[in-house]
Task: structure prediction
Amino acid sequence: MTQPYVNIDIVNEVGYIEFFHPAHNSLPGDVLAKLAQTITEAGENSAIKVIVLKSGGDRTFCAGASFKELININDAATGKVFFSGFANVINAMRKCPKFIIGRIQGKTVGGGVGLAASTDYCMGTKFAAIKLSELNIGIGPFVVGPAIERKMGLSAMSQIAIDANSFYPAEWAKQKGLFTHVHETTEELDDAVKETAEHLCTYNTEAMSEMKKVFWKGTDDWDELLAERAQTSGRLVLSDFTKEKLKGFK
Result:
């Protein structure tokens, strides 16, 4: 499969949402919009008790935002819309009344780290190194920052945001609270995800929904906060510094 997609499969009351893009699962606006919509609809679907978020392919979970789209932003309004893509997915995950399990099979960068941090229970493989590379191109992880800080703490978030060239190993991400488990292989990860998700389906859905509200306490302002952050990124992406940096990616 070489075409981008967002699919959902329901197996044993678990909704498996899978996204894919041939460019290392970097996500353009239309795929992000479909992802946010699919998560919202899964949250409303009574046939689904637990959601699993995963991506296609082997070695990369998500390479963040689409550079191809980023390069073509020429005004602040377009910039804000572009960066709102990840904001909308994070907010859809936050508001979803069901637990979302993250299946992180490989490297994840930028917005992808934000998606992993917005799941309620996240597992990876030893190949699931993380990086926040935004500062490299003259912007910052403004939109995904709150989600990462909420999960890993300000210290860890600021460390990887400043050290924008480095991949941090999956074991480090586990120590900082992003991953609950790190598995040797994707097969082991899939087995663990399936077992965890299906076990959660035996619990009281109302209790899980109430627990989710507790986990996300204090984030009621994120619709506004992430929109403001998207505006900041949208403004910075127009800077001469960033325009010059992005030329190298054409």
Q: What stands out?
A: The beta strands are 5-11, 14-20, 50-55, 60-62, 100-104, 107-109, 121-125, 130-131, 181-183. Residues 76-95 form the longest helix (20 residues). The mean pLDDT is 96.
